[in-house]
Write a structure and sequence with these properties.
The complex is a heterodimer of chains A (171) and B (133). Chain A is built from 6 helices and no strands. Chain A is mainly α. Chain A is elongated and about 80 Å long. Chain B has 2 domains: 40 residues; 89 residues, no CATH class. A two-stranded parallel ribbon of chain B has the order 1-2. Chain B starts with a helix and ends with a strand. Chains A and B meet through helix 5 of A and helix 1 and helix 5 of B.
Chain lengths: 171, 133
């Protein structure tokens, strides 16, 4: 049995903390969020997703998500709260993006050669189903969801975090 | 008597089946619609019959408009004159993907973008035929 010398102090404590499952999972969640940011930025650039103001929203959401990732790394309660607020904003942007893509597809329904003559006569439910499933229109409906996934990973990374900042009031 | 979870499962399955049938019923309702589409306006079938012919025929009634500088209303008006269906929506899309390079008179970039909308045969040719950079 290995005897841990208590006199080793903060260094040992830090190493031990790094090996805790919660710490590893937290790091993994943040790494996945970071990979999501990079991959989404690449995909948005590939799609030239900057034709109007609406298409700049996911770019802004990526910046906010990076901020949330950075904030959750800071061992302070205020930073943790900030990361959660920023993640919530990204989650809202993600949901808005999904709705916006669906609406864009719906608006493009009449342009599809298969439905140009009949689109207006289709039942509304069928029109929206076609829009949501990208049967019509160019926009990938759930693509904005990757932002929401990143936000949820940041929220998960903050679960169970403690304020590890040294307290001035300890004796 | 506690078949509640079973009833819930049946209700969810029923809802899912209803949604699936709603999606599939589009195929059934399309059949008469597509037959009416073939009998409808000659302009549509004429344009699909020979895209090159219709494209060259379209602009004889008017000048080309600038894809980069014309207003959306001007584009829509020209598209209507050329017999392009849903002229306003197509004008909106042409405006969205600006600017277009001056050295691309065939509007290859625009063609690529408009292809995502799965337009009918010859529609993109009709649009490009009335545009200039």
């Amino acid at each position: 049995m290995t005897h841990v010398d208590p006199a080793t102090g903060p260094a040992t404590e830090a190493r031990t903390r790094r090996r805790e499952p919660a710490t590893i999972l937290r790091a993994g969640a943040l790494a996945l969020a970071g990979i999501g940011v990079a991959a989404t930025a690449f995909e948005l650039a590939s799609e030239r997703h900057w034709n109007d103001l609406d298409q700049l929203i996911p770019w802004a959401a990526l910046v906010v998500l990076l901020g949330a990732i950075g904030a959750v790394l800071v061992p302070r309660a205020a930073a943790l709260t900030l990361s959660r607020v920023l993640a919530a904003i990204v989650l809202a942007a993600s949901l808005y993006g999904i709705v916006d893509h669906t609406v864009a597809n719906h608006d493009a329904g009449a342009l599809d050669g298969r439905y140009s003559e009949t689109w207006d006569d289709l039942p509304a439910a069928q029109q929206w189903w076609y829009a949501a499933t990208k049967t019509v229109g160019p926009a990938p409906t759930l693509a904005p969801g990757v932002l929401g996934q990143g936000a949820l990973l940041v929220l998960l990374a903050g679960v169970g975090r403690r304020n590890r900042a040294p307290s001035r009031h300890r004796s | 008597m506690t078949p509640t979870p079973h009833r819930i499962a049946l209700a969810v399955s029923g809802a899912a089946l209803a949604l699936a049938l709603a999606g599939c019923s589009g195929g059934g309702s399309e059949a008469p619609a597509s037959s009416s589409a073939t009998s409808t306006p000659a302009s549509t079938s004429a344009t699909s019959a020979g895209s090159a012919t219709s494209a060259s025929a379209a602009p004889t009634g008017g000048p080309k408009v600038s894809a980069n500088n014309a207003s959306e209303d001007e584009l829509a008006q020209r598209f209507e004159q050329a017999g392009i269906p849903n002229a306003e929506k197509w004008a909106d899309e042409v405006v969205e993907y600006r600017p277009y390079p001056a050295d691309d008179p065939n509007f290859n970039a625009l063609r690529e973008e408009l292809a995502k909308y799965n337009p009918g045969p010859g529609v993109v040719d009709q649009i490009v035929a009335v545009l200039q950079p």
